[in-house]
Fold:
Amino acid sequence: MQGIDINKLLDTLLYHEKDPLLFNSSFFLFFFGFFLLVYLVSYRFNALKVYLLTLFSLYFFYKTCGWYVAFILIAAFFDYNISHFIYRSTNKRRKNALLVSSIILNLGLLFYFKYTNFFIGIVNDFSSNQINYLKLILPIGISFYTFENLSYTIDVYRGVFKPVTKFIDYLFFLSFFPKLMMGPIVRAADFIPQINKEPFVSETQVGEGLYLITAGIIKKVVISDFINANYVIHVFENPSLHTGLECLLAVYGYAMVIYCDFSGYSDIAIGIAKWLGFDININFLSPYQSSTITEFWKRWHISLSSWLRDYVYIPLGGSRKGVFNTYRNLLITMLIGGFWHGASWNFIFWGGLHGAALALEKLRNSFGRRHLVILPYSRIATNAFATILTFHFVCLGWIFFRCDTFNDSWIMLKQITTNFQPHLLKALVDGYWPVIIMLVIAFLLHSISTKSEGSFKQLIIKMPLPLKILYFFICLYIAIQFKQGVVIKPVYLQF
Structure:
């Protein structure tokens, strides 16, 4: 009997493809609790802390994607060494060649696993000789740690960052488990200096971490999973079977699903990092409160948008080389951003849509404020109108982002525009009132001002420890009550 229990325990510790380790899994809750106890005993010894966190991070990654963990070890080893070669080289041509080799390796791995079958499909469309698709599994998190690797070697090349002297520090930075799978995309210049600082977790970090973790759990498990599992998935599976009214509600639902899912996961990652004594920049700032697409991208997936700005848009010339080149650079940057999300024409179109919107906003702004539409008597009304318009443009993009094919996207749009059937509103409300109530709650929470959110965060920070623990378990209890019977994997896990 005892042997069976040991076998079950060992089996639990192994990777299972159908049950990857996620923040919202019960295994992670217990395992991280055990790890946190060990960490609290050892974190004041800096070297031990780094090794312990690195080992846990690599194990966490193994439990998520199996032996693909080897790729992060290979990438870390290669970029750690090549960054030193770049830093020590005084020959410009040699430095360029070294940087190019880093870019080729990192993007080569990403392109092989993520885009090979996409390009095979393009070749097959234009050729009579059909190439068989490869049986490839996308390593989880590869899009995120590839961009971190690239930003590190590029910053070393530019001379704005000195490479780390110890390999374990770089491996720790790259594999740090809270942000490993789905970001935020962390810059080495922001994270690595924190590794060797005096080990200390402040009361503010504990409180902020608690606020972010609980907010993330509520966003992901209570709001996103509930709306997704009980409505959104079913409509997007076959939009032709649903009226335009149902499709529109699904689009609104997905807008909140993807926000609560991804920002919730980011909040949990940033909160856990704070509990471990590390500060990671915030990744979302109530993006649906934006009144322009430009503002939206300053609030949505901030780590990606800032990465694209610094390593794609500005190197292309940014806005420095004339109006036409500015618009071209914006479009190229957003097309790359769309393609980064996935090997699909839908993602490319989504990126192009946002790129075109950003270019049009720049064009509009170049004519000055006198050409903007201002509603009479009220700046507040004007801003509200602009916010609603921006939100609906973003929702238009989400249709292409969420649908599997272009055909499904057009069907969804066709149903909304030609088969709306508003007389079925009462039946829709009667049939899906829990989903609609949850959606309304989600939008109301999203509309809370930054000042009010900050006040609530300060309240949690100032709570005595027993109240903090009580608050955490109340949020956990609520999440358990709403947890769906089927596992709803995070949206950005596929990227």
Q: What stands out?
A: Residues 15-200 form one domain. The chain has a mean pLDDT of 90. The chain has two domains: 15-200, 204-494. The radius of gyration is 24 Å.
